[in-house]
Amino acid sequence: MQKLALFRLHLIVFLWGFTAILGKLIHANAQILVFYRMLFAAVFLFVFIRVYKKESIKVSRKIFFQLAAIGCAMALHWYCFFYSIKVSNVSIALSCLSLSTLFASILEPVIFKRKIDISEVVMGVVIVACILLIFKTEFHFKEGIVYGILCAVFGTVFSVFNGKMFGKTSSGNIIFYEIFSGWFVLALFYMFTGQIFQMNEINYRDLALICLLASVFTAFPMLESVKLMKYISPFTLILTVNLEPVYGIILAFFIFGESEEMSPVFYVASGVMILAIIANGLMKARKQKNFN
Question: How far apart are CA 82 and CA 190, in angstroms?
């Protein structure tokens, strides 16, 4: 069962890494892409929870508004991620995601009221130095890097506050209300700004790809990752998820070729960031083992 769980874990991380590839293959802009991704994912989750599992989606008003706020952070995270891909490329967007570790090392102690881990801060400094190096050598992608950094910020906010919600209602309800609320807020924003009419500017090819993105690469891996928590430790989950940029960057290079070809400095800096995250995780695991 443990080996099967690890295989499933790597499968969903691979699927998450492939979302960036789909983001580039889809011609629709980031606004339209995120709007339909969240709409379709919410529909798939509702059908799975209410029709297939026949479970209740009832939650208290307090929990609903908490999930709605987190859903807004999720929507902003996905928007910045896909916008970064559109104005730069997959490699830039994925490498910037590594900054989430630095932001988490600062935000998580505040939210969960624990001491700041110096090793996390040191690792964060290393990651920032690598990002600055990438920014210097790939300055022509500056807009993509800025939105990639914002993507990491909103992704950290989403992940940290999401951790506070588990246990308050079912995992399916948490994911469903976050995605649905994120879509609903986007729809309201587009209505008030008049952008809602732009949502029709999409072809059937993109709709099909977004449908694939929302089901196989969003709803399924999110639900699967929750199920896997029964068989693997949170550390193993977090450590393996850090391989998402690796999978994505390698896939992008082989699929898109020259448009994803970066300078040697980029690959060295990205490699250092990923190794720093993995090394920090291994040190934490050793400390925890010694403590127990």
Answer: 18
- pLDDT, position 238: 60
pLDDT at 240 over 70: no
Question: What is the pLDDT at residue 30?
Answer: 95
Strands in the chain per DSSP E? none
- Model-wide pTM > 0.90: no
pLDDT in tens, 121-132: 777 788 888 888
Determine the Cα–Cα distance for residues 163 and 45; give it in Å rounded to an integer: 20
Burial of 30 (0-12, 13-18, 19+ CB in 10 A): buried
Can you tell me which residue has the tokens 């690890």? Answer: 6
Q: By C-alpha distance, which of 251, 243, 235 is closest to 273?
A: 243
Q: Taking Cα atoms as reference points, which of 172, 179, 143, 173 lies closest to residue 158?
A: 179
The residue count for the chain = 292
Q: Is the dihedral of CA 104, 160, 11, 280 positive or negative?
A: positive
Task: Name the burial class of residue 48, with classes exposed (0-12), middle (13-18) and buried (19+) by CB atoms within 10 angstroms of its CB.
Answer: middle
Which amino acid type is present at position 134?
I
* Cα(48)–Cα(232) distance, integer angstroms: 24
